[in-house]
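User: Fold this one for me? It's Sugar phosphate transporter domain-containing protein.
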Amino acid sequence: MISSIKPVSSSLTAIAAVRRTVSPKLRFSPLPIIRNFENSPLRVSSPHNLSTFSLVAEKQRRDGFRVGAYEADRSQPIEIGVEVPDEQSGQKVKIGIYFATWWALNVVFNIYNKKVLNAFPYPWLTSTLSLACGSLMMLVSWVTRVAEAPKTDLDFWKTLFPVAVAHTIGHVAATVSMSKVAVSFTHIIKSGEPAFSVLVSRLFLGETFPLPVYLSLLPIIGGCALAAVTELNFNMIGFMGAMISNLAFVFRNIFSKKGMKGNSVSGMNYYACLSMMSLLLVTPFAIAVEGPQMWAAGWQNAVSEIGPNFVWWVVAQSVFYHLYNQVSYMSLDQITPLTFSVGNTMKRISVIVASIIIFHTPIRPVNGLGAAIAILGTFIYSQAKQ
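Assistant: Here's what I get for Sugar phosphate transporter domain-containing protein.
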């Protein structure tokens, strides 16, 4: 038994001697394979008890490789570092795409709409063409089965009728406003829509709101008033058009909530049906107010001044009007009313800024302050109401 211990002791002494002969660079190498070669029996000068030393070295080599494998397994998630997107993050990306598309389409529509109205000041026909283009686009998509046609009945169209009336009035009034004043001024006044919402809900529906909601109306009303008073190109028709549009869209939202409750029609198809009914409502009034003779003379004058680009402007404003409204109704299926209100506020800011830059709209500092106060009040309102 004693003789069997001595070879082990001498083997350990040989290992220590070998370690002293190895350079520090190799000795402290982090690679397990180098450490294993440091303890290899090939480095031993004496062949005494070589088999015993080989067993010890082989055991250390196995232990070293096991440790290396364990460290690799333990560090694998850190090295890969890939996070699998969950359903919630995918939903956020989808909502972000909706918002970006909504804002971009709305900005483009307002730019082309103002270009058309500057050259062709007939807002009733312009509004009619927007609704006609959207209706045609959806009919083609249903016939070609690009989109699934909605399943509707007589009750659906009955509940849609008051929504279409309010939508038609609001759309035409906003177009009339933009034909008389700058796009930025129209949208500053339209940012006061929450004040009309609270007023209508209180008087007609008997709803009551907490104090913060009422207080949030003060900056909205004050900001709109300050912007209107300091507007360089103020026009009463343009101002009243924006105010009527606010009131009409509030009623549209109220009727939409009642009409869409328990309805299986998607947001995209709901707006398509709304456009078609609004087109039927606005066409006879457009003919009565303006008429084909005025349209023909105005169209000739616009084409002679602008050229073929005018036709492209009309098509663009009509297409983008439908697309931005369609995306907004589609986003309602994916987000909460609070998120939609915040998105609507940010959309209005982007339209105001873009129109000022593109059309070089003159604006006073006080006028800009009034716009900022009104928009800030709209944001506070959306937070307070929830």
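One thing worth pointing out: Residues 124 and 290 are 7 Å apart (CA to CA).
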